[in-house]
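Figure-free illustration: sequence to structure, shown twice.
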Amino acid sequence: MSEMRFSKDHEWIRTDGDGATIGITDHAQNALGDVVFVDLPEVGRVVAAGEACAVVESVKAASDVYAPIAGKIIEVNAALSDDPGLVNREPTQGGWFFRIEPADAGEIAALMDEGAYHSFVDSLA
């Protein structure tokens, strides 16, 4: 399994084969509370880095999910339609949102590694 990288918007990204899988971090799902609905992007959609492309709704609030890199959506996690709680139970595994074909793989390296992300989260407290 490849290394995860993180955005300041609390998304994680992990490269895998021809694409990269994206979801929200454990910190983000904890802040949201119980996830009750997820609106996923359309496969084939081209997104820019930082573009809102999905929505996650919880009992507390609705929040956008941003593309941490530019690229084309190649797959969405259909399991979230039936079981949005996967985001809470498995935020970095079964609760992923979508897969993207990166426009520039170098954008991934520019994101935070796990240590930098944890330092960033600690600075928010």
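We now fold a second protein in the same way, so the two outputs can be compared directly.
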Amino acid sequence: MKLPWILRRVLGIKTMTNVLTGQKAPLFSLRDANGQAFSLKDALQKGPVVAAFFKISCPVCQFTFPFLQRLFKTYGGKNAAFWGISQDDARDTKEFCAEYGVTFPALLDEEGYPVSNQYGLTNVPTFFLIDTDGSVKVSCVGFGKPEIEQIASELASRQGRPAAAVFLPDEVVPDHKPG
């Protein structure tokens, strides 16, 4: 039996999210900083979705999002959706995206963070690759180099091509950074 996230937290069980690889992702609808509506259910009819939760003040989010942008430039568009899900207001979210070069949509989790809570998040960044059937293919709390490479591999495979390198040969990138 899966315990509710609040009970897991009280008991000290650290999964840091309710949504793990192999499970179904909760459906949600949110608006971006310009008021445009986005629905996970609708997006999954077109292809997989990379959903990355963040706060603008989080240094690990600031480190992670340029790599997610690289993934988006290579695999995003009509074949896969990429969404940042901000726990901040529209103005600050737009500034974050401009500063870190994020060009994929940044959706706003509403007051009280209903979607973050639905996913049982305790840390950001947390990102997911959600397949068209709604199942989570990749789930990562914090920065995860292997998980980003796995997303690249999964999306490349879906597009019938070899995975492109996400990390440059001269970059020193740790395998993990806690969120």
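Summary for the second example: The two ends are 27 Å apart (CA to CA).
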